[in-house]
Amino acid sequence: MGDEPETPFESVESAQQFVELLVEVIEEARRDVDAAVAVPQPERRLQALQLVSFKLAKLAVHMETGRRLLNDLRTLRRLLLSERTPEEPSEEEDQASPNLPSL
Fold first, then answer.
1. Between 20 and 97, where is the model more confident?
2. Residue 101 pLDDT more than 80?
3. Which of 88, 28, 85, 98 lies closest to 60, judged by CA?
4. Cβ–Cβ under 8 Å, residues 37 and 49
5. What string of H, E and C letters represents the secondary structure of 19-68?
């Protein structure tokens, strides 16, 4: 078995790429919906468009959270697999948090 993923979502990096594309599509959709809201609409349609805009905004927040989580996972994987050496903490950091275990 090789180290290369066999499917698009077998690595954190491929998941990050997917989330990045999804963020772009969400932002494009929000721009389109916001442009539609600016045009005079029947009240019921306007309310529906405003709800869509709100839901897209919530989804964008969740995607940003997901992006940060994936980045954290990638960093932790690199640390655990020794792909990246941890930075040595400075003396100030050691004194500031003496009760924290080192990884």
1. 20
2. no
3. 28
4. yes
5. HHHHHHHHHHHHHHHHHHHHCCCCHHHHHHHHHHHHHHHHHHHHHHHHHH
pLDDT at 93 over 70: no
Distance CA 30, CA 32 (A): 5
Check residue 86 and give left, alpha or beta (phi > 0: left; psi -120 to 50: alpha): beta
Q: Which two structure tokens, joined as six digits, stand for 66?
A: 């997901």
Domain spans of the chain? 12-83
Token reading at 103 = 């990884």
Q: With pLDDT > 90 as the criterion, what percentage of the chain qualifies?
A: 61
Q: Which two tokens stand for residue 71?
A: 């980045």
Give me the residue label for tokens 């969740």: 62
